[in-house]
Structure formats: C-alpha cells, structure tokens
Write a structure and sequence with these properties.
heterodimer, A: 304 residues, mainly alpha, MetI-like fold, 2 domains, 14 helices, B: 316 residues, 67% helix, 0% strand, transmembrane (chain A), membrane (chain A), UgpAE/MalFG_permease (chain A), MetI-like (chain A)
Chain lengths: 304, 316
C-alpha cells in the first residue's frame, strides 16, 4: 500500500467521514456488542432478578441469600473452595515461578525446550479428561504410582478420596493441567528481561539465587499477579472435578463440595432456581470485583 | 489457561534495577564450576509428574481390565486388546461415542467460525478506529474476559429456558461465540502490528472504512486468527459445565460430558451398574479419543503460542 494522495476526491471523502467518526467503528463491533448483551449482560440481570424474587415473581428482598447461606451445605462449600484456593494459588506461584526460573537457567536450550513442552502437554487434557486420568492414578489397584499411594498408607480408592484430602487432590489435578501453560508464559516473560541486566548482576557477583530474588521475581510480579487473579477467579468456579469424583465414588466424596455444585443442585435437584440464582450472583460478584480491581489497579492492561 | 501479556518496557526497568545490582556487588560468592544437582533433580521429578499419567493412559488403552490390575502399569498390553477395547467402545449403545465426538466437532467448529467473524472486526475497531463508547467497551471486555465463563452457566440456563432454547445446540454454540478474551487478543494485535498510517494511506487512496479493513487489516491478520482460533478451540472443546447444564439429551452431549456418562457405566466406580457396563481400559481409550484433537493442536502450536502470548510485548 503506497502513501500517495493523488486522489483529491478521496481525501475529500475522508474529511467528510471524519465528521461522522464512529459509524464504521460501530458497524465493526455491532455483532460483538449483541453477543456481549445477550450472553453477558442479560444473564447477569436475569440472575439478579431471580435472586431477589420468589417463585411467584414477588420481591423477596435478601431472603434467597439468607436461604442459601442458611443451607447446611453452604458454609462447608465456602470452606472447601477457600481451602482449595489457598492450596492452588500457593502451589501455582511457588512451583510455576520456581520451575520457570530453573528452566531459564538451563545451559542446554534443547533440554529446556523439551521440558517446557512436556510440562505443557497435560494442558490438552483439561476438563473431564484430566479427572478420568486422575481417577485411575489415584486408584491403588491400577495406579502407576501405586507404590507411592501404599507408602502413604492408602490401599483403596475410597481411602484416597477421603474428604480431608480433597483440596490437595483437586490442586494436583488443576496444577497438572494448568501449570505447564503458565510456565511457558513465565519463561517467555523471563526472556524479555534484558540480558544486560542479568549480565551486570553476574559481573557484580550475584549468584543465581540473588538474581532470581532481586531481579527476576520483582520483574515477573505483574505476571504473577495476573496468574493469581485468573487462577482465583477460575478456582471459585470449581465444578467438574468434584462432580465427576462424586460420580466415581458413589457420592461418598465431592457431592455438594463446591459452590457451583450447590447452585446446580438448588436449581436442578431442589427445583429452587431463586436460591440457585442467589448463589450465582454471589459468585458473579466475587469474579467481577476481582476482575475490576485488577483492571483498575494493576496497570496491566492499557485501555488507553 | 494462560493468556497473553504485555511486558514492562526495559527502558523503564533498567534504571530501577541498577542500584540493586551495585548492592549485590558486595555479596560476592565464587562458584567455580561446582554443579548443584538439585535443580536437575527437581526438573526431572516434575517431568515425571507431568508425563507419567499421559504415558500410563496411552498404555492403558492397550490392555485388558485384568492386565490393568495385574501387569506392570507401564507395560504395553497387546494390539489385540486395543482392538477389542475399540470394538467394545464403538459398540457402546450403537456407536454413541462417535456421535459425541461428532457433536464436539460440530459445536467447536461452528463456535470457532462465529467467534472469528465476531472477534476480528471488533478487535480491529477497538484498536484502529474511533467511535463513541470505545473506551467503555474496551474496559467491559477486560473485566468480562477475566471472569470465568462458569459464573454465568446457571444464569444462562435461566435465560435459555425463558426463550425455549434448552436442548438446542445453539444454546451452547452462541455463548461459546461470545469470547471477550479473543477480542482482547485481536485488539492487542491490531494496535501493535498495524501502523495507523497504513490505514490512513488506504483511506487517502479512496478505500472505504470497510475496504480498509478488508484490504489492509484482514490480509495481515493471519497470526491473530490462528491465535484466537487456538484458544477458542481448546476452551470450547474442553468445556464441561455449560453443555452439561444446557444439553440434557445424551445424544446431544459433547464428548467431555459423554466421558461422565461412560464413567457412570464402569462397575469399579459405580457398583450399581447393570448390563451396560464399560471396562476401565475402554474408558481410558475414550479419554484418549476425547483429547486427541486438542493434543494434535497442542503438538503443533507451542512455539507459535508463546509468540502469541507475548504479542504486544517488547521485542525478544
């Protein structure tokens, strides 16, 4: 495309168009805005409407929220999700950053690349597939690490999925599928740190530990926060892992374990969509606040 | 799933770290050639952690249930057993598993096409045109993209129920096509990869707004089309909660939800199952089939994915 303004008429038209900024822009975003309204805004309003009304469409105040909060399964579900989130976020930050730093230090680029690829592969098994794999891995009768499970004192599947250990198990599954992608990202971010800075530090006598602690980790901070926000928001939505686990253990473990399961059961087992909507609104609010605070405060995105 | 980033500018960071470096000079430690084996050990341990279950899954599909329990977990069964598992699986309720795979393919493909049609022009407009409400739309996109899609599943059910779309495949395809993260990726790409003066030139040469998009921006958009396509495909293929709620008929399940149904038919996990039982190696084979498309995409996308995730970042 050459920059030649030989067409007077064309430039005139440009001026005229400049008087109507936005027409074309609105045309380009129209479809997206329709979807945003239909599948972002409307369901949100709908959930809020249901959360504040009764089955008979009369205003209910906060009674659906108190119903949900008063349900014997509610507080345990909050506790489960909170405990899971702590395990998940801590392991994510510690191991993803740690592994990315180790991979970045590897002298052999080929080995580093291969390892990154191997770490990343389980990401393809996200969702139900990862739960299937881990149901087998956690079953001492067929597990490839049966010796490990037995060393830890587990001889049957039911012992492994005892309620106390579930946050750890869900963390294992989530970490197994999700960590590899984040390691790639952290590695890429490490590559973006100017080699001159690291070289200067090395010449000044900094060891790998000091370089990591004083240069690399501070410069990764933004990405670590971003990862935590996404992992936090995603973690509050725990559903498929406990749901399938409860199927596999005949409801012994994982039934009504998470808030999303509870919302689902309110809606489809108890036929109480209003209380279900109240739980959804709470989860929505949690996700919305986390996202909005991050967008507003982190400076991560420049939305000019 | 990881997403993309914008890196801090090195110019901004260099002065900040300079004093740190000088301080470090005092704590000099010589380490002549001494190799610490710990990092290698840790990396190896994690490699086993990430790879072992995948390898086990591949091998499990080649065994009989008896071999699964008694043979070495990391041994190969036999081609014969693999064949038998395949026959048993495809025979399950008259080829239902293949139907689920076709459903998954149909839903993800239609959603992919619609996502691209919606996302590319929207990202282009947010990056390179001016219109009223642009900033608001951009901020809304950022906030919504950080919210996990599962938050809206039950509310979406209520909405779809009101418009009688429950059980229609569009009840999942349309929500799949709403993909704010894709819009953000396209926005980043267009605002960094295409200089505004290029579009100005096109307009001066008499291109209409749509012409400038079609003739200048679209031909340059291949990398971001591939990138958005990758994330959309993986996210939709692996989605469980939304189709689980919105598609109650089992002949409409995508394969992810179908895996849950198969799980229910495995006697070791569900002792109440009757005659329609599924053996564990068949479940392993079904899991393999369910992940194959995503796995294939993964095998070919790593390098390009990393490049894309750091799109808009400083030069490497």
């Amino acid at each position: 495309m050459s920059i030649s303004a030989r067409n007077r008429a064309g430039s005139e038209r440009t001026t005229r168009r400049a008087l109507w900024p936005g027409r074309a822009g609105h045309g380009f975003v129209a479809l997206y805005v329709v979807l945003l309204i239909a599948f972002g805004v409307v369901p949100t309003i709908y959930a809020i409407y249901f959360a504040f009304t009764t089955a008979g469409d009369t205003f209910a105040g906060f009674s659906n929220f108190t119903d949900a909060g008063g349900d014997f399964r509610f507080l345990p579900a909050v506790g489960h999700v909170a405990l899971y989130l702590v395990c998940w976020l801590v392991s994510l930050v510690v191991f993803v950053v740690g592994l990315a730093l180790l991979l970045h230090r590897l002298a052999s680029r080929g080995v580093s690349k291969t390892l990154r690829f191997l770490f990343y592969i389980p990401g393809a098994l996200a969702g139900a597939a990862s739960v299937m794999v881990w149901l087998f891995v956690l079953d001492p009768t067929v597990s490839p690490v049966a010796f490990l499970l037995k060393a830890l004192g587990f001889t049957t599947f039911d012992q492994v999925v005892a309620p106390g250990g579930l946050p750890i198990l869900f963390t294992l599954i989530a970490f197994w599928t999700g960590a590899g992608g984040w390691i790639l990202v952290m590695y890429g971010a490490l590559n973006n740190i100017s080699p001159d800075i690291l070289e200067a530090a090395r010449i000044d006598g900094a060891g790998p530990w000091q370089i990591a602690r004083r240069i690399q980790i501070p410069m990764l901070r933004k990405w670590i926060v971003y990862m935590c926000i996404l992992a936090f928001a995603g973690g509050t939505q725990l559903f498929v892992e406990p749901e399938l686990l409860s199927q596999a253990s005949n409801g012994v473990a994982g039934r009504d374990y998470s808030l999303n399961q509870l919302s689902y059961d309110f809606a489809f087992q108890n036929n109480n969509v209003n209380t279900a909507a109240a739980v959804s609104v709470e989860l929505l609010l949690l996700g919305l606040v986390a996202a909005a605070v991050f967008v507003a405060r982190s400076g991560f995105f420049d939305a000019d | 799933m990881p997403t993309d980033f914008r890196s801090p500018e090195p110019s901004a960071s260099a002065p900040a770290t300079a004093p740190v470096v000088t301080r470090l000079a005092r704590s000099r430690r010589a380490r002549p050639g001494l190799k610490n084996p710990l990092p290698a050990f840790v990396l190896l341990l994690f490699a086993v952690f990430f790879v072992l279950p995948v390898v086990w899954l591949l091998l499990a599909a080649t065994k009989t249930d008896d071999q699964l329990v008694h043979a070495n977990p990391l041994s190969f069964g036999s081609w014969h057993a693999l064949r038998a598992n395949w026959d048993a699986l495809t025979g399950y309720q008259g080829d239902t598993v293949m139907l689920w795979l076709r459903n998954s393919a149909l839903y993800t493909f239609l959603a992919l096409v619609m996502t691209l049609v919606v996302v590319i022009p929207a990202g282009y407009a947010l990056a390179l045109t001016e219109f009223r409400g642009r900033h608001t739309l951009l901020v809304a996109t950022l906030v919504v993209m950080l919210m996990p899609s599962a938050t809206l599943v039950v509310p979406l059910f209520l909405e779809m129920n009101a418009v009688h779309l429950i059980g229609s495949m569009w009840s999942v395809i349309l929500p799949y096509s709403f993909y704010p993260f894709g819009v953000y990726l396209a926005y980043i790409y267009f605002s960094t990869a295409i200089p505004r003066c290029l579009l100005e030139a096109a307009r001066l040469d008499g291109c209409s707004e749509f012409g400038a998009f079609r003739r200048v921006a679209l031909p340059l958009a291949t990398p971001v089309v591939a990138l958005v396509g990758f994330f959309s495909l993986v996210a939709n293929w692996t989605n469980y909660f939304l189709p689980y709620v919105l598609l109650p008929q089992d002949d409409q399940f995508p394969v992810q939800v179908g895996l849950g149904t198969l799980l229910d038919a495995v006697p070791q996990f569900n002792p109440t199952v009757g005659t329609l039982s599924v053996e564990r190696p068949e479940l392993a084979l079904a899991t393999l089939l369910a992940i194959t498309p995503v796995l294939v995409v993964f095998l070919f996308s790593q390098r390009f994915l990393v490049a894309g995730m750091l799109a808009g970042a400083t030069k490497d």
